[in-house]
């Protein structure tokens, strides 16, 4: 059995977790466990969904795969036990991975210094402060460091399928993709800032600012 651990923290982004969880949890021979500082429900960034952590961070000694999600709560999580815990657990993993601003937590754990990494487009430059080289690739693999980072939110689905391939084989990964009927055909082509109009970029920035007001916390790291 291959073990996957996903740590939760207040105001994580739900799809950051579910996008990776779904393909991995569907794969025979893979077990996914949600953990948090304390067992119990942890609320997402929209405040309407909670996922239940089964185990406390301190009770996890090792895992084959670590998946660190992102979200507005990353800022608060930086000041908690998560970076140190990530650093410790990374010593035991086959793959340490992140989605969205979860890569900032990998950076704070000291895992991305001198490495390429990706994140949500509004957070990617924060990686520089941790000695990482930000890229705008959707999924970035650093094989010798056993690290994989995925960009914003939905990119976790892509990374999840890639992990299935790495942990099993391509046929299994393609079968999981088919079972999920993951066949992206979005109605718009504005899923990356390079293709979004100035109006769309401004509206997205306004939504981001509104979310920070609705869920106040310390300012993002600079």
Automatic annotation (TrEMBL):
GO biological process: regulation of DNA-templated transcription
Domain (DJ-1/PfpI) ranges: 4-165
Superkingdom as given in the UniProt entry: Bacteria
Stated name of the protein: DJ-1/PfpI domain-containing protein
Organism: Micromonospora arborensis
SUPFAM superfamilies in UniProt: Class I glutamine amidotransferase-like
InterPro entries assigned: Class_I_gatase-like, DJ-1/PfpI, INH-QAR
